[in-house]
């Protein structure tokens, strides 16, 4: 097994995933479609404005699943080589709070 093969996610045999965008397009989107979601029910790279002290900051959610035009699920994708940590959980939870929805998911 070569180096590239050892980095392949076990849940996606034969799919080369090297970046966050690869993870979104090759893993997350097919999975969401298999759950019955369509792209018409999603927003991508949606800007979220937050106040950080005296300045405004714009953050971008990777994928939002909408129900009645409101975000109900927020997905924050990471590249496959990234190990999720507490900061990642805080990041997606902050996104969810800013759009007033349930806690998000890191994938």
> How many separate helices?
3
Strand content: 25-35%
Q: What is the average of the pLDDT values?
A: 81
Helical content class = 25-40%
Per DSSP E runs of 2 or more residues, the count of β-strands stands at 4
Structural class: alpha+beta
Provide the low-confidence segments as ranges. Answer: 1-10
Topology:
Elements: H1 3-6, H2 20-34, E1 42-52, E2 55-67, E3 70-76, H3 86-98, E4 105-106
Parallel strand pairs: 3-4
Antiparallel strand pairs: 1-2, 2-3
Précis, in short:
The protein has 107 residues and is of the alpha+beta class.
Descriptive overview:
It is a single chain. This protein is an alpha+beta fold and 107 residues long. It is 30% helix and 31% strand. The chain has 3 helices and 4 strands, in the order H-H-E-E-E-H-E. A 4-stranded mixed β-sheet has the order 1-2-3-4, covered by helices on one side. Strand 1 and strand 2 form a beta hairpin. It is globular. The relative contact order is 0.16.
């Amino acid at each position: 097994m070569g180096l590239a093969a050892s980095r392949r996610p076990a849940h996606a045999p034969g799919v080369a995933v090297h970046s966050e965008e690869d993870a979104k397009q090759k893993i997350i989107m097919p999975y969401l479609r298999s759950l019955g979601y369509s792209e018409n029910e999603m927003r991508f790279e949606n800007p979220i404005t937050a106040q950080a002290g005296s300045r405004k900051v714009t953050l971008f959610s990777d994928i939002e699943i909408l129900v009645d035009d409101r975000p109900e699920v927020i997905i924050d994708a990471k590249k496959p080589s990234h190990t999720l940590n507490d900061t990642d959980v805080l990041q997606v939870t902050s996104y969810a709070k800013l759009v007033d929805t349930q806690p998000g998911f890191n994938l």
